[in-house]
From TrEMBL:
<dbReference type="InterPro" id="IPR005106">
    <property type="entry name" value="Asp/hSer_DH_NAD-bd"/>
</dbReference>
<keyword id="KW-0791">Threonine biosynthesis</keyword>
<comment type="pathway">
    <text>Amino-acid biosynthesis; L-threonine biosynthesis; L-threonine from L-aspartate: step 3/5.</text>
</comment>
<feature type="domain" description="ACT">
    <location>
        <begin position="352"/>
        <end position="430"/>
    </location>
</feature>
<keyword id="KW-0521">NADP</keyword>
<dbReference type="GO" id="GO:0009088">
    <property type="term" value="P:threonine biosynthetic process"/>
</dbReference>
<keyword id="KW-0479">Metal-binding</keyword>
<feature type="binding site">
    <location>
        <position position="192"/>
    </location>
    <ligand>
        <name>L-homoserine</name>
    </ligand>
</feature>
<dbReference type="InterPro" id="IPR045865">
    <property type="entry name" value="ACT-like_dom_sf"/>
</dbReference>
<protein>
    <recommendedName>
        <fullName>Homoserine dehydrogenase</fullName>
        <ecNumber>1.1.1.3</ecNumber>
    </recommendedName>
</protein>
<keyword id="KW-0028">Amino-acid biosynthesis</keyword>
<comment type="similarity">
    <text>Belongs to the homoserine dehydrogenase family.</text>
</comment>
<keyword id="KW-0486">Methionine biosynthesis</keyword>
<dbReference type="InterPro" id="IPR019811">
    <property type="entry name" value="HDH_CS"/>
</dbReference>
<dbReference type="InterPro" id="IPR016204">
    <property type="entry name" value="HDH"/>
</dbReference>
<keyword id="KW-0560">Oxidoreductase</keyword>
<dbReference type="GO" id="GO:0050661">
    <property type="term" value="F:NADP binding"/>
</dbReference>
Length: 430
């Protein structure tokens, strides 16, 4: 087979960048057979040349000058694994404008500026691929764009943050409270020193925006996604949920409805029999419903050096094949619709409501009356605990618009017989 070499540049040599370097080195002997070409790293952009030299076989590929990459016409592909908005955004835009192809794992950037980047790629007939931006090593972007293109997809939902899933798993299986489980996640390296993006749902929200845009062919940005974290979930909530045959997971849920797109990330009670309920520890899973395929689920490692590198190198190989057969830019931006985004107050959910109330006659009737007056139907009421003066009750509602349920909560907070609203958690399903 005629040998063709495709030269690439790697922006960043941190955890993921090092993984990409390792995978490409491991694949060297089989590239020609797999691709009809060899992929060669010509440049690696780093901040600290001395530190980076310890990670590579040949330190002559290292540079701290972007100019050595952008002005090198021999470099066909730029792999961005720096993270953050800048200078990553500038480098990607300049690379695309120069006719280079780009692979990125940057969910922050794609979730906010994806349209502009894809438009630039389309203008210059370049490939911009970002499989690793969502769910690490799990293939989901390419399946949504290609394998499931024959479907009208109505729902994409999943566990798309490993840190929060690890925390909730420990709370479920070992009875830990949130702070204890978070401390363990930090100790084991699952949580960052500042875990805000994970535990508040922001990381999952960015990933959900990307998936919803592709699944529903309409632009969804991170600002469109309602996010709520897991810090208020308690071991008692999880215990009660399990008694009702449910688990609590931080879910990203995107639905394409007749009245607009729903995109939200928050804790939910989900039936223990649902496939997502069995996803434990730091694993991720994405559940997709299409009109032709029905239900499908994608499961695996959602982060980490090698799983993320696997997705990145898969994109690089895809681009290499496109270059080899002169068919680059086949699939650009797929957002050809302009569907409305529903506000959280207009979305319907069922609710798990746990309250501490005065233990005296008429309290349950008062609670039921407030809910009824705000169009909230009760599916179930359970008295869970009782002291000399206080009772704990759990109310499960039928499906209701969120704004009506919030109106009820506002009234409850002003009622003297209700001592504390301990938990409000949505329940999966209609």
């Amino acid at each position: 087979m005629e040998k063709k070499t495709i030269q690439v540049a790697l922006l960043g040599l941190g955890t993921v960048g090092t993984g990409v370097y390792k995978v490409l080195q491991n694949q060297r002997e089989e590239m020609l057979s797999k691709l009809g070409a060899e992929v060669e790293i010509k440049r690696i952009l780093v901040r600290n040349l001395e530190k980076a030299a310890k990670k590579v076989e040949d330190d002559s590929v290292l540079t701290n000058r972007w100019e050595d990459i952008i002005h090198d016409d021999a470099i066909s592909v730029v792999i961005e694994v720096m993270g953050g908005m800048e200078p990553a955004r500038t480098y990607i835009m300049e690379a695309l404008a120069a006719g280079k192809h780009v692979v990125t794992a940057n969910k922050d950037l794609i979730a906010v500026d994806g349209k502009e980047l894809l438009d630039m790629a389309g203008t210059h007939h370049s490939d911009l691929l970002f499989e690793a931006a969502v769910a690490g090593g799990i293939p989901i972007i390419r399946p949504l764009k290609q394998c499931l293109a024959g479907n009208h997809i109505t729902e994409v939902m999943g566990i798309i943050n490993g840190t929060t899933n690890f925390i909730l798993t420990k709370m479920t299986e070992e009875g830990m409270e949130f702070e204890e489980a978070l401390a363990l996640a930090t100790e084991l390296g699952y949580a960052e020193a500042d875990p805000t993006a994970d535990i508040e749902g922001y990381d999952a929200g960015r990933k959900l925006a990307i998936m919803a845009s592709i699944a529903f062919n309409s632009r969804v940005t991170f600002d469109d996604v309602y996010t709520e974290g897991i810090a208020k979930i308690t071991a008692k909530d999880i215990k009660y949920a399990r008694e009702m045959g449910c688990d609590i997971k931080l879910l990203g849920v995107a639905r394409n409805t007749d009245t607009g797109i729903e995109v939200r990330v928050h804790p939910m009670l989900i039936p223990s029999a649902h496939p997502l309920a069995s996803v434990k520890d730091a694993f991720n899973a994405v559940f997709v419903h299409g009109d032709a395929v029905g239900d499908t689920m994608f499961y695996g490692s959602g982060a980490g050096e090698m799983p993320t590198a696997s997705a990145i190198v898969g994109d690089v190989f895809d681009i290499a094949r496109n270059i080899r057969y002169q068919c680059s830019g086949r699939i650009s931006c797929t957002c050809y619709k302009e569907l409305p985004i529903k506000q959280i107050g207009d979305i319907r959910s069922r609710y798990f409501l746990r309250m501490q109330v005065d233990d005296k006659p008429g309290v349950l009737a008062s609670v039921a009356s407030v809910l009824a007056n705000n169009s909230v139907s009760i599916a179930q009421v359970i008295q869970k605990a009782k002291s000399s003066e206080t009772a704990e009750i759990v109310v499960i509602t039928d499906s209701v618009e969120e704004r009506h349920f919030n109106d009820s909560l506002a009234i409850f907070q002003g009622m003297s017989v209700i001592r504390k609203i301990s938990s409000v958690i949505r329940v999966y399903g209609e």
